[in-house]
Amino acid sequence: MILILLAACLAGAVRAAEPPDTGFLHKDWELSCDNTRTCRAAGYHVENKDDAAVSVLLTRKAGPDEPVTAQVQLGSYTEDDSANAAKAGVTTMKVDARPLGTVRIDPRTMTATLSAQQTEALIEALTKTGTPRWSNRGGSWTLSGAGATAVLLKMDEFQGRVGTPGALVRKGTKAEDSVLPALPAPVVVAAPVQKGKASLPRDAVKPLLAELRKGFDDGECEGLAAGAKAELEVEKLAPGKLLVSTQCWTGAYNAGFAYWVINAQPPYAPVLVTDQASGYANGTITAAQKGRGLGDCGSREQWTWDGRRFVQTLAETSGMCRLVAPGGPWNLPTLVTVVRKAK
To answer: Distance between CA atoms of 188 and 27, rounded to whole angstroms?
Structure first.
């Protein structure tokens, strides 16, 4: 009986620690929790209205008694530098008609950090019926609360806070010690790499292509298409290892390249790293893709060479496509690591 109860408790803890549905979002809010159990909830203005673009980011680390920090970002996507300057500086914050002091908008980032009292009032407004606003001589910005309660409840569930005094939505009397602890970010040691182009014997290209194609269906990777002229890029990587790449696909505003690690001599034994990459430099493969042609949102991933293989060291998005800022308003990771150079 004890073993059954223990198994049930462990299963509950595992479920609480699982990431929310990938890219979980509801109405005007979204949630991203990473592998350290830090969670970030981002909210926006109401879409398809005349409301000025604005976004708020709520960040909370895992563990008992951890506070929530909040940042606000005023829209800068469609404004020139002079308009941004007019919107920067001292800005008044209110919930409905209740004044909550001021924040100072940084003209370089168009962001400000809220005080602990402002953050508390903001969360109370979002989980009830209040409407947060910021205003200055450059305009007025209204944050939508639609979807906030569902997203903040997901955050509480992921971090094991439901029923505790520190929960954002469903508070209770459970001990704060029951909250799931933070997990350490994995440490990846980046190994030195060789630089420069490399070449393969002409008679090696055909058998290598046959091996590379094994991981793709017909037509799935343009650079490997049968009958097409294969264009393989080969770079030095490490003693006995080469990095091979080819363009796999193109879209209206994105392109994806496949990268493999191969032996420098037969048998080549290719190992695919990704077919979504944008480029490679100094031991790091990067994938940076726009979410849409307007360039107001996107995603980013990285893989780092550790001397044996490429290890994924980053996965993040920039937030919803809401015309808040060029490139997107925030960094919302689901995978974070500490990358250190080999000594």
So the answer is: 37
DSSP, res 16: H
pLDDT tens digit sequence for 156-191: 999 999 999 999 999 999 999 999 999 999 999 999
Q: Taking the chain, what is the end-to-end CA distance rounded to the nearest angstrom?
A: 51
The reported pLDDT for the residue numbered 210 is: 92
Tell me which residue range forms the domain holding 167: 12-178
Q: Domain with 133 in it: what CATH number?
A: 2.60.40
Residue 2 is predicted with a pLDDT of: 32
Q: Write out the H or E segment, with its range, that includes residue 85.
A: helix 81-87
Contact partners, residue 166, CB within 8 Å, separation at least 6: 64, 65, 66, 176, 179
The residues, ordered by sequence, that sit 6+ positions from 318 with a Cβ below 8 Å of its Cβ are 291, 297, 298, 299, 300, 327, 328, 329, 330, 331, 332
From CA 88, how far away is CA 106, in angstroms rounded?
6
> Residue 5: its pLDDT value, please?
32
Nearest to 163 by CA among 181, 149, 177: 177
Counting as low any pLDDT under 70, the low residues of the chain are: 1-23, 81
Reduced to 3 states (helix: H, G, I; strand: E, B; else coil), residue 277 is strand
Describe the chain by its helix, strand, coil percentages, rounded to 5: 20, 35, 45
Backbone angles phi, psi at 329, to 5 degrees: -80, -30
94 DSSP β-pair partners: 99, 133
Q: Which among 178, 197, 229 is the end of a domain? A: 178
- Residue 239 and residue 312 in one domain: yes
Q: What tens digit of pLDDT does each residue of 193-242 get? A: 999 999 999 899 999 999 999 989 888 999 998 877 778 999 999 999 99
